[in-house]
Specification:
This protein is an all-alpha fold and 299 residues long. The chain has 9 helices and 2 strands; from the N terminus they run βαααααααααβ. The protein has one domain (12-298): Formate dehydrogenase/DMSO reductase domain (Formate dehydrogenase/DMSO reductase fold, Up-down Bundle).
């Protein structure tokens, strides 16, 4: 884009996806995935899954977040803007989730946890799952982000991914014999909800304004269509859906471990690809209205 076109035409968002910004994408993804695994595992007493979820959130997601910061040892200063920043609120949610989650796991190991603590942990786990959606939704100038559907999509994808990983862990460890049937039902519902939400989300943004239309064009049949149709649709949705349908007749416990692992991996890969597209396809509304055609932005 030429300098004289800056913010006259819809402008690409780069801060949260290019260069070091890719670390923020990974931080959001793994923090929410870890919280989702933990959240689901608490309902079925899957201690190993809780531990894996806690480590994914704290070590992988938290580590990526710290690496993204320009001054990692000053990250604690973000809490000073809790009244106006979803990043600040997210730091508090994640910190409380990790603290209470650690205590909950220790007490469970000793056979002495409480329902009150479990509820408290799950509240902060859920807030951890959804906060990135609200952080993006708070940006009014980007139609692809400024929609109430985005936090819902992040909530569904975070819990869906968490349920799938928790299912894989518990089936391989055999910690809870009844977890498979219950979690399989969760996964079917969340998969369907995710597909519907993505379709409704893209259609609604498409008709928001010309900038929203340009963003959706870039994702669906513009320059990023291979990632959308191959990464998100085929790998992330079609293959996992096929495995879920087959499991209706065979039972999830009878599925070949390799197929189950592949389905979980593809689901996570598709979710990460969709999150990448949401960040990469984001365009700012122009500050100065322009009559220039937007078709070129779909390329």
């Amino acid at each position: 884009m030429k300098l004289n076109e800056w913010m006259v035409k819809p402008t690409q968002q780069t801060e949260w996806i290019e260069g070091r910004g890719i670390l923020l994408l990974l931080a959001f993804f793994f923090i929410e995935l870890g919280a989702g695994i933990f959240f689901v595992a608490t309902f079925f007493d899957g201690w190993t899954a809780m531990l894996v979820g806690w480590l994914v959130c704290a070590v992988v997601g938290g580590g990526a977040h710290i690496l993204y910061l320009g001054h990692p040892f000053r990250f604690w200063r973000m809490v000073s803007r809790v009244g106006s920043s979803w990043i600040s609120r997210g730091l508090i949610f994640v910190s409380l989730f990790l603290l209470l989650g650690f205590v909950h796991m220790v007490l469970i190991r000793g056979g002495d946890s409480s329902p009150v603590l479990m509820v408290s942990v799950n509240i902060f786990a859920f807030l951890t799952i959804i906060y990135a959606g609200f952080a993006l939704n708070y940006v009014n100038g980007i139609p692809l982000w400024n929609t109430a559907l985005l936090p819902i999509i992040y909530a569904v994808s975070g819990i869906w991914g968490g349920a799938s990983v928790a299912l894989g862990i518990t089936l391989f460890t055999g910690e809870v014999s009844t977890i498979g049937v219950s979690l399989e039902e969760w996964i079917r519902i969340l998969l369907l909800a995710y597909i519907v939400l993505i379709i409704v989300y893209l259609i609604s943004v498409r008709y928001t304004n010309p900038t929203g239309k340009a963003s959706v064009q870039r994702i669906v049949y513009g320059g990023y269509w291979p990632l959308m149709w191959i990464g998100v649709v085929f790998i992330g949705l079609v293959f996992p859906t096929a495995v879920v349908v087959i499991s209706l007749s065979t039972g999830i416990e009878n599925m070949p471990p390799g197929v189950l692992c592949a389905a979980i991996f593809c689901e996570l890969l598709g979710d990460l690809a969709m999150r990448y597209l949401i960040l990469k396809g984001a365009l700012y509304n122009p500050l100065i209205p322009s009559s220039a055609p937007l078709q070129e932005l779909g390329a």
